[in-house]
Amino acid sequence: MSQFKLYRHPLSGHAHRAELFLSLLGLEVELIDVDLLAGEQKQQAFLKKNIFGQVPVLEDGDITIADSNAILVYLASKFDPEHTWLPLEPAKAAEIQRFLSISSGPIVQGPAIARLINVFGAKLDHAKAIETAHAILSKLDDHLQNRQWLTADHPTIADISNYPYIAHAPKGDVSLKDYSNIRDWLQRVESLPGFISMQAS
Ligand SMILES: N[C@@H](CCC(=O)N[C@@H](CS)C(=O)NCC(=O)O)C(=O)O
């Protein structure tokens, strides 16, 4: 039996961030599907794990961590003794935080929402989400012009956090055809030993 339990939904990009990173670290996890469409995440039992009623939630023995980026920080801090996924140097750590903020800001408001509308029928503004997606993706494509990874000369949790919703952007009618640097970066992430993909919707 694994020491970890990950409460997730198979089509959640937020949950995939955690699942992917556990796999890259070679950590086995018991996956527990939460029925988001039935509202299981807003039931008392789940709210005890995350007052915001959202997946993912990681349990490591008696420690409970909610929020995808919090889970990445926790796992990197506890299980990467070399500190390559989350360096300790203040400027490097700050640069990673900058890209975690991007992943929970415009990447959610853009490609993630555009996909949510197509895949789950969310009643949100598709045109606005697509516009937000292209605004951030064109910036990221420029950023990746002369670099292999988002924040360092090696992969960090910033890359893992940003990967799922960018990789699945086309599901929201956000084409990646104009972003060759992003497409090359996605392939680099997909080539990492232990990479696992999110279930296709
Ligand atoms: N900031 C949170 C956001 C998580 C989130 O939006 N989860 C969605 C699934 S992708 C969810 O649980 N939605 C159900 C709900 O809000 O009721 C994180 O990074 O984990």
Which terms would index this structure?
201 residues; alpha+beta; 8 helices; globular
Briefly characterize the structure.
The chain is of the alpha+beta class. The protein is built from eight helices and four strands, in the order βαβαββαααααα.
Query: What is the global morphology?
Result: globular
Q: What percent of the residues sit in helical stretches (DSSP H or I)?
A: 40-55%
Count of separate DSSP helical elements: 8
Low-confidence stretches: none
Strand segment tally:
4
Structural class: alpha+beta
| Mean pLDDT level | 97
| Main sheet characteristics | 4 strands, mixed
Distance between the termini: 29 Å
| Relative strand content | 5-15%
Walk across the major sheet and give the strand order: 2-1-3-4
Cα gyration radius (Å):
16 Å
Q: What series of H and E elements makes up the topology?
A: EHEHEEHHHHHH
Ligand inventory reads:
glutathione
Describe the structure.
This protein is of the alpha+beta class and about 200 residues long. The chain is built from 8 helices and 4 strands, in the order E-H-E-H-E-E-H-H-H-H-H-H. It has helices at about 15-25, 45, 70-80, 90-105, 105-120, 125-145, 155-165, 180-190, and strands at about 5-10, 30-35, 55-60, 65. It has a 4-stranded mixed sheet, with helices on one face. Strand 3 (about 55-60) and strand 4 form a beta hairpin. Helix 1 packs across helix 7 and helix 5 (about 105-120) crosses helix 6. The protein is globular, with a radius of gyration of 16 Å. It starts with a strand and ends in an 11-residue tail after the last helix. The relative contact order is 0.15. The mean pLDDT is about 95. It binds glutathione. Glutathione binds next to helix 3.
